[in-house]
Specification:
Blueprint lengths: L5 E2 L7 E2 L10 H15 L43 H15 L19 H16 L7 E12 L5 E9 L3 H9 L3 E9 L5 H13 L2 E3 L4 E2 L4 E2 L12 E7 L8 E8 L7 E9 L29 E11 L12 E10 L1
Antiparallel strand pairs: 1-2, 3-12, 4-11, 4-13, 5-6, 5-12, 6-7, 8-9, 9-10, 10-11
Helix pairs in contact: 1-2, 1-3, 2-3
């Protein structure tokens, strides 16, 4: 049994480093890194949504480890489906490619029947397993796409709302998408209309905010207030994900993203709700039309006009040379932008 220092992975199986010239490799020394790789590559853990515990959240749905566990007294071959060290190398090479982790010395050179596996290579493979485990939610690259768009063209002075549904065929696909670093969200912009400071503030607000996403454990955006709620903390009631306020005289104007899930035990549909609220009131008095009001146009009319465009946005993890694939959800505007 290996007698070196422990290599721990929070929520996984502890591995132990090999001491050269001293240790006899046993089945557990092979099986421990193999178990951690299998946990990463297999079906997503079936945890109930509502709270997030990182140590119990894993599983990319990529078929599991490409090698069977070793048996007591059995042989670990260079390349054999029932105990091949090369198969572990293949798995960790793919995981490192997906996550953009550096393949450590010796791990990237496949062993053959004529090779002796050094203690350094064995230990580096286990360290690479830890590298991937600790960074399992962070793919090296993603593809960001618009999935559904909605326009509101005209004048509004109170608020606009919409709902977007993102649907997977199974709960496993849904969990695996987020476990692999996938995200769903929105992007919005306001153009055209009147040349008012009110319109300008809304345009600036949405531009500064950029893409707003629901991640596995939190929200994200270029500017705004993060509620710290992610996919794994969703319930069947709406929860705040992200809020972005206006500035100056328009500081009361805001955009808000909320999200809920159809089931905390069998999640297949996420509904995103967006709100564009305009409670701003600028000054007081009577406009040139003789009507008391707070008009951006000087006529007692406080409104926003032009075109408000909202896109459903999805970030799908890229294979990045790993051969992995994740199921992108079908995101559509279930309820269009409406309001007054």
């Amino acid at each position: 049994m290996a007698s070196g220092a422990n290599i721990t992975v929070t929520g996984g199986t502890t591995m132990r480093q090999v001491v050269a010239g001293t240790d006899l490799i046993e089945d557990a020394d092979f099986n421990n890194p193999r178990t951690n790789l299998d946990t990463l590559l297999t079906t997503a853990a079936d945890v109930t949504l509502g709270t997030f515990t990182e140590s119990s959240t894993f599983g990319w749905g990529q078929g599991g480890a490409g090698v069977s566990a070793a048996s007591p007294g059995g042989l670990v071959y260079a390349d054999n489906a029932t105990g091949g060290f090369k198969r572990l190398q293949d798995d960790i090479q793919a995981a490192c490619a997906f996550l953009g982790q550096t393949v450590r010395t010796g791990v990237g050179t496949d062993v053959t029947n004529s090779d002796t596996v050094s203690a350094a290579t064995w230990n580096n493979l286990m360290l690479n397993v830890k590298d991937c485990w600790d960074n399992r939610f962070s793919p090296a690259s993603v593809t960001t796409s618009n999935e559904s768009g909605a326009n509101f063209i005209g004048t509004w002075k109170n608020s606009l709302t919409s709902e977007i549904t993102c649907t997977w065929s199974t709960e496993e696909e849904c969990r695996e998408f987020f476990n692999g670093g996938g995200k769903v969200g929105v992007n919005a912009s306001r153009t055209g209309g009147s040349s008012t400071t009110q319109n300008t503030d809304w345009s600036n607000l949405l531009s500064a905010m950029g893409d707003v996403f629901l991640n596995y454990n939190t929200g994200s955006g270029s500017s705004g207030t993060n509620a710290g709620i992610g996919f794994y903390e969703l319930t069947t009631s709406y929860q705040d994900i992200w809020t972005k306020f206006g500035s100056g005289a328009y500081a009361s104007n805001f955009f808000k993203l909320e999200a809920k899930v159809n089931s905390t035990t069998n999640p297949t549909v996420i509904t995103l709700k967006t709100t564009y609220s305009d409670p701003h009131a600028e000054g007081s008095g009577v406009g040139p039309d003789g009507i008391p009001g707070t008009g951006d146009d000087g006529y007692g009319n406080d409104y926003v006009d032009g075109t408000l465009l909202q896109n459903a946005r999805v970030q799908t993890p890229d294979a990045n040379g790993s051969g992995f694939s994740f199921t992108k959800p079908n995101c559509i505007h279930f309820a269009p932008l409406t309001g007054s």
